[in-house]
Amino acid sequence: MDNVSDVRIFTLTGINETMDHRTAIFSLTLVYYCVILFLNVSLIVIIVLDENLHEPMYVLLCCVCINAVYGTTGFYPMFLLNLLWFTQEISYGWCLFQAFVLYSFACCELSILAVMAYDRYLAICRPLHYQSLMTIRRLSQLVGFSWLTPFCILSISILLTSRLKLCSLKIKKLFCVNWIIVQHACQDSDTLSNTIVSYATILIYVSHGFFIIWTYMHIIRTCATSKDDRVKFMQTCLPHLVSLITFLTVIVFDLLYMRYSSTDLPQSLQNLIAIEFVLFPPMVNPLIYGFKLTKIRNRILSLFRIGGQ
Questions:
Q1: Alpha carbon 288 to chain centroid distance?
Q2: Do residues 47 and 62 make contact, with C-beta atoms less than 8 angstroms apart?
């Protein structure tokens, strides 16, 4: 294998499979991306402009939608440009930036979902203390934690990757992934720091998952003894659970596949598995919250009634 440590261009070989149907895939992807932007931006605008929705649960939903816009913008525009220009290449700098955006998107999503679980735990299990515990200051701190922690961790990870001497130019995916870039390091490169940060990141976000499980154990136990709490659970916790299960399913599937993948699978199926986390959650979240949360649904219906007059 040639030493190409001064690499400036990566080749995304996963795009090869899409080129035979480039026009159709470009059109469908563009429409899908526009729908994602429309749904998420619409919810953001509704929550920001309606003072009745300036509550912790809706502020956190707004954060989820902002994160969806951020994450999908890290993938779709570059993928569309690659299809449009019939190119498979991406510069090393943009590759690292895309890996940072997509990784931080995934970590931020789990952090926000953990904060949402905490908010629901307080609302259902400790309703008398909810207002005093979930203050504007506390909410701001939690939202800041949800964003800044992943950005700091991923910044360290990407900086460690950028110092590696690389011996391969090809990435068998539709987008750049930090773990695969590290795998392309030459044999004499020191990747121990990358491995430590990688497993530390996994440990941190697995702990988020255990925290969410802990909150829902308490929520379900409380709801089992109260009809009113069961109604509240169905109205506010069910959308969160659907969002959480959707996200965790696609992320775990992708991580397991990336670490223990089989080259026997068709490239098109490999591509679908790879982009699930920017394909389903950003579309499912605004739909499930928009239909299920009463205040959001009523606000949307009122806008349609005003528009129809």
A1: 16
A2: yes
Handedness of CA 151, 153, 156, 158 (dihedral sign): negative
DSSP 166: B
Structure tokens at 138: 């506390």
The H or E element that residue 43 is part of is: helix 22-49
Query: Distance (Å, rounded) from C-alpha 241 to C-alpha 117?
Result: 9
160 and 193 Cβ atoms separated by less than 8 Å: yes
Average pLDDT over residues 81-86: 82
Rounded CA-CA distance 250/277 in Å is 6
Q: Encoding tokens for residue 149?
A: 């922690």
More confidently predicted of 303 and 238:
238
Whole-structure pTM over 0.90, yes or no? no
Q: Within 10 Å of residue 302's Cβ, how many Cβ atoms?
A: 11
DSSP 8-state symbol, 189? S
Q: What is the pLDDT of residue 17?
A: 64
Q: What is the pLDDT of residue 156?
A: 94
Q: What is the mean pLDDT of the chain?
A: 84
Q: What is the largest CA-CA distance in the chain?
A: 70
Q: Which residue has the tokens 């953001």?
A: 44
- Residues sharing a CB contact under 8 Å with residue 51, sequence separation 6 or more, in sequence order: none
> 3-class DSSP state for residue 11?
strand
Query: What is the arrangement of strands in the sheet containing 170-171, beginning at the earlier edge strand?
Result: 89-91, 9-12, 170-171
Cα(69)–Cα(35) distance, integer angstroms: 11
CA 34 to chain centre: 17
